[in-house]
Design a protein that fits this description.
Layout lengths: L2 E12 L2 E12 L3 E5 L6 H9 L6 E6 L2 E2 L5 H6 L2 E4 L11 H8 L6 H14 L1 H5 L10 H13 L5 E5 L7 H18 L2 E5 L3 H7 L2 E6 L2 E7 L7 H8 L17
Parallel strand pairs: 3-8, 3-9, 6-7, 7-8
Antiparallel strand pairs: 1-2, 1-4, 4-5, 9-10
Helix pairs in contact: 3-6
């Protein structure tokens, strides 16, 4: 598999704190790859480093052959890589439509922007119903859909979604994942997702990386990790050596 996104020996420090230490992972075109790990493990930092939100990054981050460190977030987005941040971060006083149009500022003309809006409305009919409503009045699930829709407006090929289930009811989360799967099937979208629930990622992911203490502890396909025992051991840090369980291509030793 040729990696669409490849991280090799990535290190991020905040002063004396080492947030990522020698982290390596790969995402192939059309895959759904999930990151899982305890709070503070480095999952969100990994996504921020890829998206250009970290000032100093050591190691290599390549997207379709282009090195990303030192590039500004806007330039990274123009390459076709978009981040849906944790906590959604919608513009609460702007309408749903206005939030989406902000995401479409990189489209080359008004016609393409309008066509993208129609596609987003088709994937998220609940947003269409609230088109003129201020985004701050949407439910948490609707705001998550709006954040994903806004990312789609940038015309991405790879979307990173940070904690899509945070604070949402399970039924709403399943709806969000069903939409993400539909986007993969219909748009050819590649997805890198930071998720809390190992049960959910075993249902939706192609491959899984477990991160703890800023390093990859385990990597494998969802089928290889189906019983959840290796994930539990890597997540909590007990049991035998779990790094490279399954098929560990791209995992740190």
């Amino acid at each position: 598999m040729t990696a669409m996104l490849a991280l090799a020996d990535v290190e991020v420090r905040y002063g004396r704190l080492v947030a990522l230490r020698g982290l390596s992972l790969e995402v192939g075109q059309g895959e759904i790859v999930c990151l899982i790990g305890p709070n503070g493990a480095g999952k969100s930092t990994t996504m921020a480093a890829i998206a250009g939100g970290v000032a100093r990054v050591a190691g290599s981050i390549r997207f379709e052959g282009t090195e990303l460190p030192a590039r500004k977030p806007e330039r990274i987005a123009r390459l076709g890589l978009s981040l849906v941040p944790e906590g959604r971060h919608v513009f609460g006083t702007l309408t749903v439509e206005e939030n989406l149009r902000i995401g479409g500022y990189m489209r080359p003309n008004a016609r393409e922007s309008a066509a993208a809006l129609e596609r987003v409305a088709g994937y998220f009919p609940k947003l269409k119903e609230r088109w003129r409503a201020p985004a701050g009045r949407l439910s948490g699930g609707e705001q998550q859909m709006l954040s994903i829709g806004r990312a789609l407006m940038t015309n991405p090929r790879l979307v990173m979604v940070d904690e899509p289930s945070l604070g949402l009811a399970p039924l709403i989360v399943d709806t969000v994942y069903e939409i993400l799967l539909e986007l993969r099937e219909r748009e050819g979208l590649t997805l890198l997702i930071n998720e809390q629930s190992s049960h959910r990622i075993l249902r939706f992911a192609d491959r899984i990386y477990v991160i703890r203490n800023g390093a990859i502890q385990l990597h494998g396909t969802a089928d290889e990790l189906r019983d959840g025992e290796a994930i539990k051991a890597a997540y909590f840090g007990f049991g035998a050596s779990v790094a490279q369980a399954g098929a560990p291509s791209g995992a740190a030793a």
